[in-house]
Amino acid sequence: MSLKLALQPHSPVSRILQNVLRAIRSYAKGLCFHRPNSLIIPIFLWSKMLPCYMRLFFGKIVARVFVPKSKLCVKIILAMKNSLEKTLLTRRILTGLILIVSLLSACGDDDDGNGGPDFQHVQDIEDNVYPAVAIGSQVWMADNLKVTKYNDGTDIPYKTDNDNVGSLTTGAFSYYNKDVANSSLYGALYNWHSIATGKLCPSGWHVPSDAEWSTLINFLGGEDIAGGPLKVITTAFWNAPNEGATNDSGFSAMPAGYLYDNSTYYSLGNVTHWWTSTESDDDSAWDRYVTYKDAKALKGEYSKKVFYSCRCVKD
């Protein structure tokens, strides 16, 4: 069978390739979307195991998933430089040029054109850029917040080793295990007092209320199954089995853990909690959380002194 015939839209080979590409695309979106430091898929493209036409197909998928902005195109192409130098140009230069053109052609394209999530972008006061995704009637950040200043420019106090979390009555933030490197994947952790200021999210955005979280969860099928389309599908960050994860919504939930009011960090890889802006009583507030062990997205009530992740929703 000729390659041209095999790749006809309804041929068995074409259907197999489409399923493989769909799986790769879903994996890449969950693991690496807007994370140019996670270059597993682009590096994989240069493997000697892949013939030229396969690299072309995968290159287009990566272009659609990774790089809605030209700045990221450049980062990914530069990151491939070392890999390219180790290859035989006689075999790979044509494929490399095709891939680069494919990447550049996708820059600025937020919608994958195939019914996938419609990604936008939002920038905070410190120039951190977050992907944002339309889910139903709402637009959500697709990364956890990591800002260290309120939107009026004032600093959010950082939780230090000498702070007793349980005694804090004003806004504060921390990084998991006090390691700023964790913010690139998991964002920062905030107590509810920082949420209560109303100044945590960028202008035009806000911390979602309990009712707004309910709108999201209901749109995704309800508490029993909504965690699946919220979580990234990889077990590189989530602990196994990461039950039900599909990231179909593009929300890209990562297992950020939390800082409890006994000043101890817990559950990186197991769970993510997000604050709502809604109090349950004078001492507690509502949150939503997802875990590695099931596909649920549940509601909780916890002390305002606990440090959780935060997402923002568009006004």
Can you describe what's shown?
This protein is α+β, with helices and mostly antiparallel strands. Strand 9 and strand 10 form a beta hairpin. The longest helix has 21 residues, at 12-32. Helix 4 packs parallel to helix 7 (89-106). It is 32% helix and 17% strand.
Residues in β-strands, percent = 15-25%
Catalogue the unreliable spans: 1-10, 21-95, 97-115
- The rounded Rg comes to 21 Å
Number of helices: 11
* Helix percentage range: 25-40%
Instruction: Specify the oligomeric state.
Output: single chain
Give a brief description.
The protein is α+β, with helices and mostly antiparallel strands and 315 residues long.
Protein traits:
315 residues, 32% helix, disordered N terminus, alpha+beta, 3-stranded antiparallel β-sheet, globular
Topology:
Blueprint: H1 3-6, H2 12-32, H3 40-45, H4 52-66, H5 70-79, H6 81-85, H7 89-106, E1 118-123, E2 129-135, E3 138-141, E4 173-174, H8 183-186, E5 189-191, H9 192-196, E6 205-206, H10 210-219, H11 227-230, E7 258-259, E8 265-266, E9 271-279, E10 284-291, E11 298-303, E12 307-308, E13 313-314
